[in-house]
Amino acid sequence: MKEELKALGEEAKKLIEKSSNIDEINNIRVEYLGKKGKLKNILRTLGKLSPEERKELGQLANRIKEELEDLLKEKTQFLKKKALEEELQKNRIDITLPSHWIETGSSHPVISTLIDISETFVAMGFSIAEGPEIEKEEYNFDMLNIPKDHPARDMQDTFFLNNGEILRTHTSPVQIRTMLKQKPPIAIIAPGRVYRKDADPTHSPMFHQIEGLLVDKDVTFRDLKGILKIFLESVFGKEIKIRFRPSYFPFTEPSAEVDIGCTVCGGSGCRVCKGTGWLEILGCGMVDPEVFKAVGIDPEEYTGFAFGLGIERIAMLRYRITDIRLLFTGDMRFNHQFKGIR
Ligand SMILES: [Zn+2]
């Protein structure tokens, strides 16, 4: 019986040694040390022996049991540690590897300029109005006092669509649309894309304009000058020189073009200002009474001013860009230079 116990112990030890996972360990524990296990089975036969033999074998059985329990515990810990190490190895992250490059976006110089200008006017109480880029000739020309035979229609080389509509040549039709549905007082700016058959280093067939319109009682040219001064100083800085030159637009009377002192040479003359020391920035004037009549506003009761400018022109001056086409090629080497400007 003693030999039997020892053999059982050795057998279990070998199995524990060979075992390679926790399930096997648990099976060994049940098979040898469990309530119906092999060790218990042997001990159940002890009753037939003498008290001395019983004592001796009982002690032996306990030693074997304790020994096996220690081995099982040890092996379990070993296997758990091994499993953990394998898991860590499998999901190993090399923190010294360079990370993926994530490209961050930023505003295009035209859009950031457009937003800056819009914010300046919104701060002065203007609201933003929008209109369609495919426009009725009536709104783009006729109601702005540009009749069919008017030379201004030749001045603007227009894209005509097959259905008789056009791609708007300026944002001014938004003024018409606004005045048709809203009674004064009106204070809007209308930013958006416009289209003309023009393409050279300073002209693009598609460009952005921003138009302003203010209609109320007793609006004067002085108000126009004040508003434009605030706007130009906020875009180009307080030290800017401003001048108004008489001009002609069909939809304003009187009309003026506004120049600022050249931001590149400071007025001494350079390539950008073509040696004049001045840069043309925008066109403006008092709304022509004919335009008010076309939209059903009484020109005896109300007066107003309007102005319009090209966003690309402003962006080119702000960022010293010499070719307008750079703004539209989508060349990332160019675009990346404007990261963080807004
Ligand atoms: Zn200059």
Descriptive account of the structure:
- This protein has 342 residues and is an alpha+beta fold.
- The protein folds into two domains: 2-90; 109-338, Bira Bifunctional Protein, Domain 2 (BirA Bifunctional Protein, domain 2), CATH 3.30.930.
- The protein contains twelve helices and nine strands.
- It has helices at 2-18, 22-33, 38-43, 51-90, 109-123, 137-140, 151-155, 173-181, 221-236, 289-295, 311-319, 332-335, and strands at 127-128, 134-135, 166-167, 186-195, 206-216, 242-249, 252-261, 278-287, 303-310.
- A seven-stranded mixed beta sheet has the order 1-4-5-9-8-7-6, with helices on both faces.
- β6 (242-249) and β7 form a beta hairpin.
- The longest helix is centred in the N-terminal third of the chain and has 40 residues, at 51-90.
- It is rod-shaped, with a radius of gyration of 44 Å.
- The termini are far apart.
- 27% of the residues are buried.
- The mean pLDDT is 89.
- It binds zinc ion (ZN).
- Zinc ion binds at residues 262, 264-265, 269-270, 272-273, 277.
What is the topology?
Elements: H1 2-18, H2 22-33, H3 38-43, H4 51-90, H5 109-123, E1 127-128, E2 134-135, H6 137-140, H7 151-155, E3 166-167, H8 173-181, E4 186-195, E5 206-216, H9 221-236, E6 242-249, E7 252-261, E8 278-287, H10 289-295, E9 303-310, H11 311-319, H12 332-335
Parallel strand pairs: 1-4
Antiparallel strand pairs: 2-3, 4-5, 5-9, 6-7, 7-8, 8-9
Helix pairs in contact: 1-2, 1-4, 2-4, 5-9, 5-11
The structure holds zinc ion.
